Amino acid sequence: MPDDEGHPAVAEMSLGPVLSALADPLRRRVVRELAAAPDGTARTCSSFGLPVSKATVTHHFRALREAGLIRQVARGNSRMATLRRADLEQRFPGLLDVVAAEPED
């Protein structure tokens, strides 16, 4: 059962939703950038500089959160995103390595 913020538990993370979230190149970019940063790095959604509207950024981060790829925490009037690295490695070993190795578009 997802927690109050919409983050699924590790056992609830399914490959279909994860792959669906990763199907979008902008969402893969977010995951790659978080994967390249030190573990536990938290960034605001706007810090990624995605070339889309604020509403579309919100949609992308919701898709990543609901699939279990990121964890979001409210910080004042923004939300901080961190990669669920350990959870992803436990549930889908090697998946982050594949995403992180993808060349930039």
UniProtKB/TrEMBL annotation:
Keywords: DNA-binding, Transcription, Transcription regulation. The keyword Transcription regulation applies. SUPFAM superfamilies: Winged helix' DNA-binding domain (SSF46785). It comes from the Bacteria. Residues 7-103 form the HTH arsR-type domain. This is DNA-binding transcriptional ArsR family regulator. Gene3D superfamilies: Winged helix-like DNA-binding domain superfamily/Winged helix DNA-binding domain. PANTHER family: TRANSCRIPTIONAL REGULATOR, ARSR FAMILY (PTHR33154), TRANSCRIPTIONAL REGULATORY PROTEIN (PTHR33154:SF12). InterPro entries: ArsR-like_HTH, HTH_ArsR_DNA-bd_dom, HTH_MetalResp_TranReg, WH-like_DNA-bd_sf, WH_DNA-bd_sf. The lineage of its organism: Bacteria, Bacillati, Actinomycetota, Actinomycetes, Streptosporangiales. Pfam families: HTH_20 (PF12840). GO terms for molecular function: DNA binding; DNA-binding transcription factor activity. The keyword Metal-binding does not apply.
